Amino acid sequence: ADEMRIALVVKALGIGFFEAAAKGAEEAASELGDVKIIYTGPTETTAEGQIEVINALIAQNVDAIAVSANDTDALVPTLKKAMQRGITVISWDSGVAPEGRSVHLNPSSNPLIGNMIIKLAADNMPDGGDVAVLSATTTSTNQNIWIDEMKKVMPDYPGINLVTTVYGDDLADKSYREATGLLQTYPDLKAIIAPTSVGIVAAAQAVADAGKIGQVNVTGLGLPSEMAGAVESGASESFAIWNPIDLGYSAAMIAYHLAKGDAEATAGAEIPMGRMGALTLDDNLEGAMADPFVYDKSNIEEFKSIF
Amino acid sequence: MPYDTTSAGDTPPVGQPILALNGIEKVFPGVKALDGVHLSLYPGQVTALVGENGAGKSTIVKILTGIYQPDGGEILLNGTAITFPTAQHAAAAGVTAIHQETVLFDELTVAENIFLGHAPRTRLGLLDWRAMRRAAQAILTSIGADIDPGVKLAELGIASKHLVAISRALSIDARVVVMDEPTAALSHKEIHELYELVEKLKAQGKAILFISHKFDEIFRIADRYTVFRDGQFVAEGRIDEVSESDLVQMMVGRSVDQVFPQRTPTLGEEILTVAGYAHPTEFEDINFTLRRGEILGFYGLVGAGRSEFMQSLIGITRPSKGAVKIEGHVRIIRSPAEAIREGIVYVPEDRGKQGAITALPIFQNVTLPSLAQTSRNGFLQLAEEFDLAREYTQRLDLRAASLDTPVGALSGGNQQKVVIAKWLATKPRVIILDEPTKGIDIGSKAAVHDFMAELAAEGLAIIMVSSELPEILGMSDRVIVMREGRIVAEVSGDEMTPQTLVRHAAGIGQEDAA
Amino acid sequence: MSLSDTARTQGATPATQRRDPRQIPDRLTTRGQRVLKSWEALLLLVGIAIFVANCFASPYFLSPWSLSDATFNFTEKAMIAFAMALLIISGEIDLSVAAIIALASTAMGAAATAGFGTPVLVGIGLGTGLLCGAFNGVLVTRLGLPSIVVTIGTMSLFRGLSYIVLGDGAYRGYPDGFAFFGQGYVFWVVSFEFVLFAVLAVIFTVLLHKTNFGRAVFSVGNNATAALFSGIRVPRVKMILFLLTGLMSGVAAICLTSRLGSTRPSIGLGMELEVVTMVVLGGVSILGGSGSIPGIVIAAFVLGLLTFGLGLLNVPGIVISIFTGALLIGVIALPRLIAKGRR
Amino acid sequence: MIPLRLTREVLLAFALLVLLALVATRFPGFVAPSNLAAVFNDTSALIILALGQFIVILTRCIDLSVAANLALTGMVCALLNTVAPDLPIVVTLALALALGATLGAVNGFFVWKLDIPPIVVTLGTMVIFRGIIFLISDGQWVNAHEMSARFTAFPRYEMLGIPMLSWCAVLVIALVYLMVTRTSLGRSFFAVGGNPHAAVYTGIDVGRTQFLAFVISGTLAGLAGYLWVARYAVAYVDIAGGFELDVVAACVIGGAAISGGAGSVVGIVLGALFLGVIKNALPVVDISPFWQLAISGSAIIIAVALNARSGRAKGRIILRKAEHAHEPV
Ligand SMILES: Nc1ncnc2c1ncn2[C@@H]1O[C@H](COP(=O)(O)OP(=O)(O)OP(=O)(O)O)[C@@H](O)[C@H]1O
Ligand SMILES: Nc1ncnc2c1ncn2[C@@H]1O[C@H](COP(=O)(O)OP(=O)(O)OP(=O)(O)O)[C@@H](O)[C@H]1O
Ligand SMILES: [Mg+2]
Ligand SMILES: [Mg+2]
Fold this sequence. Notes:
Chain D: This is ABC transporter permease. The complex is a heterotetramer. Chain A is of the alpha/beta class.
């Protein structure tokens, strides 16, 4: 084929984070020249929906599929089928079990993220105190890993006490309700850590509505465009995220080089990612893109219009 | 109040009909229900509309009351053409009706059932519940109905519901009152009150259209008659100028023997014995026996609990105690399926709810209880189903376009024939017929009676529940009278007179019998 | 008024003709006429139109493997739809089917983790389905609760049980042989699931249209009281249908679990509405009493082809669902519009 | 007669109190008046939608598209706000009501004029409305900082210490109550659902009445759409996803007969509150989140079973002596 078709399969369409990633992938495509990006995904964040989408991509005989998975395992059989038909498969953001892909691109390293989210909370709690976690669904792979990593480094932050983990299912209203529940159940709560872009916005809104700005700090992982209001109001002192544009860009680059055959997916290999440098693969054929980046009052204005 | 007595001229006004229908046509898919019929109603006069089942009587009622739109012809009210796009338009023009089927709302109160659509309002335009209740109470009292307007309709029995329907018709200030088989669901006492009501309405100068299959009734209260046959106008005139047989001749196109079939019952061995049957709330202490070849009548006022008892006999409801013996063996029947297997079948009185499955074709209705007979290893055999259905429907002289026609498209009487055919086709040993000729025309009635006689002669045992005295007296070998859930009398032979039956049924002069 | 009025007679047939029993024909239409006028014929036309449109729209459509992959879009849903069609015809509905899948899948996952082999897993999948169906059936037939309400409740309950068992975990590690149900091919591109679908289509067609049981289903759906009086054991019929729907959900759970190779509590989320859509598009009256299995089969293909065809054009799923929704309303509105136009 | 008719509602109110008492034993703060007000506020959207759904269910229909209607109206309001941030709230509200009504009218039209079963129509429009949100928003979210302060402030604005969102619910409850009990349109909803056949004989246009029920349900969904989006300060394709089932559940818990023609406003409000309390209580009483779904499912089943018991029609009694023994308790 004269043109290489790379499919960027996301968890669900319409999520700001992934729209930004798609922009990055397009940027990579125009840099590479002979690449066409197919940006697609299911309507809801289900594995079944992604399988239907991937089946359609297999039928179109695309050259590469880069997927952010709704389920680590459920996509494996379908992605195996894709690989059997000669399609390069990588996962990014939210991973697929090793037998279902060649390479996985982590936005950052999990331990770094786990540490980052608790550090952001602790930095604003000089006297220590209670924190709670508001996660996405109980089945989200990456959220769970980050929370585990966070728990591992908790001893490094004496005086910080994790009281509970609740699940907002990545639904605005449920997350809001769960956050409100936290504020009631734990009147002494000092911070809510939400490592999900839906949850962090809802939690910030709940804190603002409960009149607890200044008392409870909301932090975690969010998008500058969605969090700008919360940072301005003071509901959130700071939060972190990697740059989704860079992530989409890198995923497209990796998929391109693997599909082209000028890079190989072996442990220790380095896969070029254009302006992002190179991805070093570990024994699981995974690699981390970059450190998460912290946003606060000083830089939010600059980024909120970008993603 | 619209029903207040106002004096009216004694001599029925001759001349202009208040309401005239000319050349009315109505076509349903596959049926021309009305083919250019003509009907005139005169103030202060009762016009009886007669015709066989399916002649189009109810259809013209529905056209008159804005439920159906005619496909042709004109309606003249006091000489001016008018249309009734909805029932409310007809009511506004002063046309009100008691329909053949009860069209009321179970979940609403009696008062609201009477006034829905034209309820009194407060000055703010909101419904005035208190005024509504008061007015409802007044109407109910005026027709002698002892019903609390505040109760939900669902709590009433069929007869009371019918009285509510009558009250509803009276709540509209009407010039024309239509009654489509109003006495079919009523008993003796209520029927007489209805006659009085008709007289009262007549005296108020209202035009009344009265539809009935009961000839004694027609000759008693009608001033004029109109005859339809197969959707066509046949004749009209003054009732005192025709005889009953003339009318039948016009209606059916032949003369019908009004006499019940002559038969000399040969009673066989006992087939059914019921001992000590009881139910916590509906009936108790029911004991009787039934022999082969016998027709046992069950008489009582509507609501006496006959249907309830029969239904528990076939396993619809559980009795609290008592036993059934079939040919001497004790049997416990827990469902109609078991009853059918034991050869006991029940032809229910509520045709629309319990009898027919109106959306399904005739042949499927007929074969439903006998599928075991027409099928092979649980697989349907259509040819055999058609054979069975054809055999029984033709024996009952069914009128239908085809056996594949949905039962709902048939007239009431023809639906009844399908329902009877359906249970006869199971080849039962005991057949219980609950009001078998309710709402069916004189010709078909004779056919059903003949057929019953034939079946009895073949050795079938028949129980016939009926509230119609002539039918009970004409058909039964023996009569059991029920009142308030108990057997109050068993009469046979010379004792079987109208007076005895009515006296037992109404409990006159024997208040402490039980 | 005079006697002469009486003489206004018309249209009376001669007396002699009336007595002989009338011969009633069995049917007025031939089988061919009925088939041509049927819902299925209309739906088939729509299906063919979509197929042709797909051929033109995407060069990838007409390949055996593509078409084979496309069948996975509907086979599992259709299996449930067959049983659901019977249930809806009988006047009930089961909205908990997708939740039954989750629970059955969870039970199989637990068993697989405990080291049981494929036959046991299949038994557990089917058994769980039956058990769930029985639970729904008892609530509906014994307690007399409306099924739409009961199954909205059990929909949360069954899936909730999977959440209690699995939490944020997942079951993997299914035995190798188990993959056959959802990923195996019987012959060339013909998958096991497709063969199962076809076999079930035949079984259900016979069951609904050729047996006494099927006739009972129709009569219960049209008038349950009259059916009861006619000797149909209505509660039993409904109970069997709930069991059947549970069983078919169990079958679908086996296929889907095998296809995904893993179980999470969110498996099959939202599938109940797709199944109901398929049933309704297949011409089953949602009010009960009428419908056919061939209609469901065609509807399954129509929906499968539509979503797959639009998927090949990379149309977002939510936009595809606009087409599905419009198709559902449009195809049902069409015959009524035609009927209105004729009048 | 009055106590008899209220059994269902009394039972439900009792269940609600028991539930609150149970929660209070684990977490006393839950029954503090301020928190109860917060729970009511949080349940307001559900109450508003449930009352609309109630009217539709009364007429023997069902509206599965309410949540999608809410989401679409909410998105349109949010988008409108981004282009015209200074639009007075009255105008936004009017637009929300009008758009909701229009979407409801679309449903009603198909039910009335083409006689398509309501569940089919609204199953279709449910996905179509969501699809339209995707098309008009291009799949993007509208976030808090893109909304004007005035837009998000309305539902939070407090009057007599109670937020506007709650006042809206109170107003809707009052209006629906008045309509259902004291207007002929309200009564015709009961008639149409109770016995559509008889309704025709009463001169009620069944289709038109059902159409109006959908319009009312749509209007309320539109209102809830604006309130929802303004309250959570976010709009996207999936907001209130699956909420239609909660709405239907609230109705049936509240005693609306799914076969039409029966139910009461008080019951529906209690039904919605019952669900609202469960939803709000589960997070605070520290029950594992994995148990929540199963618990709310069981609550629905139990409530419906109890409901059916208390509502079982009192049959006619023939035997004289049995009449008194069977007085309802
Ligand atoms: N809704 C309908 N659809 C199709 N056909 C109908 C419908 N209503 C009535 N018919 C047909 O119209 C004809 C007249 O029926 P109608 O009910 O007026 O008879 P009727 O004179 O009232 O009979 P009965 O004495 O049995 O009540 C019958 O052939 C009947 O089958
Ligand atoms: N309030 C009611 N609720 C439920 N069913 C009723 C009610 N009233 C009457 N029915 C049913 O309607 C039918 C006709 O009732 P009806 O008043 O004729 O009493 P019945 O018990 O049938 O007495 P009989 O046969 O002696 O006249 C019966 O099948 C009865 O079960
Ligand atoms: Mg009639
Ligand atoms: Mg009776």
